[in-house]
Amino acid sequence: MSELLFYHLERSTLEAVLPQLLEKTLERGWKAVVRASSAERVSSLDAHLWTYRDDAFLPHGSQGEGHEEAQKVLLTTGNENPAGANVLFAVDGAGIDGVDTYQRCVLMFDGGDPEAVAAARVHWKAVKDAGHDATYWQQSEAGRWEKKA
After folding, report:
1. 3-class state of residue 147 by DSSP
2. Cα 91 to the chain's mean position, in Å?
3. Cα(142)–Cα(84) distance, rounded to whole angstroms?
4. Cβ-based neighbours of 87, under 8 Å, separated by 6 or more
5. DSSP annotation string for 55-120
6. Mean pLDDT of the chain
7. CB under 8 Å to 70, separation ≥6 — which residues?
8. What is the pLDDT of residues 39-49, one digit of tens each?
């Protein structure tokens, strides 16, 4: 069974949080797939990950660029996992299909978007009903992650 983590963004943007989580993923020697809901969002995240911090380098590639099987971080809209990644990050309403092919799945959603919150609740119920180990993390007033469930 895959471990699922729900990240309820309230104080920070996806662009602020995702690079930090990807860095921690790579530090563990894991690979990641970042699944977005549109090709435009993949392109936007790709550009952001190259420039998010002057003193950092986050190796990654996007679907359709080639060599997907060699990527430590692959940005995609699809359900593929060509590099055998350990972690799936589902962002911007992307689904978590194929979650069983990953050790960990991180569903990140914007707490300011009622539709995103409602969709996360549906996913939460589905994964709990399927018997997955799921935890729910929400940002505190200070921006720290607190485990709520």
Report:
1. strand
2. 5
3. 36
4. 25, 30, 31, 32, 33, 102, 103, 104, 105, 106
5. T-----EETTSS-GGG-SEEEESSS--TT--SEEEE-TT---TTGGGSSEEEEEEETT-HHHHHHH
6. 93
7. 61, 83
8. 999 999 999 99
Q: Which residues contact 22 (CB under 8 A, 6 or more apart)?
A: 32, 34, 49, 58, 60, 73, 89
- The CA–CA distances, whole Å, from 102 to 39, 85, 94, 95, 140 equal 22, 7, 16, 14, 28
Cα torsion 85, 21, 48, 116: sign: positive
Q: How far from 27 is each of 24, 30, 84, 124, 132, CA to CA, in Å?
A: 5, 7, 17, 28, 25
Contact 21, 30 (CB under 8 A): no
How far from 32 is each of 61, 65, 142, CA to CA, in Å? 11, 16, 28
Query: Looking at the predicted structure, is the pLDDT value of residue 144 above 90?
Result: no
- Residue 135 Cα to chain centre, angstroms: 14
**Taking a C-beta distance cutoff of 8 angstroms, is the pair 5, 107 a contact?**
yes
Model pTM score:
0.94
Instruction: Give Dmax over CA atoms of the chain in angstroms.
Output: 43
